[in-house]
Design goal:
Rossmann fold; 5-stranded parallel β-sheet; 37% helix
Length: 137
C-alpha cells in the first residue's frame, strides 16, 4: 500500500505598515513559523489594496495609522472586494478597536503580542477559530 503524505498548507500573508523597520521585524518574526509565509509588503493602505489584488493573500496584517490611506479605509476596500481575505489590524492605539471592527477587520491586535500568539491569531482567522485579541510584542 502506498503511503499518503499530506502537505501542510502555508498561510500567505501581506504585511502592511508605514514603518519599514516594523515590516522587517514582522517578516523576521513570521519567518520563524513554517505555517506562515510573507508574500508581500506595503507601506500604506493604497499599496495594500494593490498588493492584495495582485497576490490574493489569505491574511493581511495591517497597521491602522498610515499616510496616503489608513488601514481602516484599506480594510473596508479589501473586505468589500475580497471578503475571503482575513484582515487583522495591528496598532499601538487600543482606542482604535471599535473603528477597526466597524471597518470590517477580522481581528484587532495590539503591538506587543508574543509571536506565537500572533501566529495563533493568523491561523485562527484562516481556520475560523475565535480571535485571541491582545498585544503584539
Amino acid at each position: 500500500m502506498a503511503a499518503v503524505h499530506q502537505r501542510k498548507q502555508v498561510v500567505d500573508i501581506l504585511v502592511v505598515d508605514d514603518e519599514a523597520r516594523a515590516r522587517r521585524a514582522l517578516r523576521a518574526l513570521l519567518a520563524t513559523y513554517p505555517a506562515v509565509s510573507v508574500v508581500a509588503e506595503a507601506g500604506n493602505g493604497a499599496d495594500a489594496i494593490a498588493c492584495a489584488e495582485a497576490t490574493r493573500p489569505s491574511v493581511v496584517l495591517m497597521d491602522v495609522h498610515m499616510p496616503v490611506m489608513d488601514g481602516l479605509e484599506a480594510t473596508r476596500q479589501i473586505k468589500r472586494d475580497h471578503p475571503e481575505i482575513a484582515v487583522l489590524l495591528i496598532t499601538i492605539d487600543s482606542a482604535a478597536e471599535v473603528a477597526a471592527r466597524a471597518a470590517g477587520a477580522d481581528d484587532f491586535l495590539l503591538k506587543g503580542l508574543p509571536g506565537g500568539d500572533l501566529v495563533t491569531a493568523i491561523l485562527g482567522r484562516v481556520q475560523s477559530r475565535p480571535s485571541v485579541s491582545g498585544t503584539l510584542r
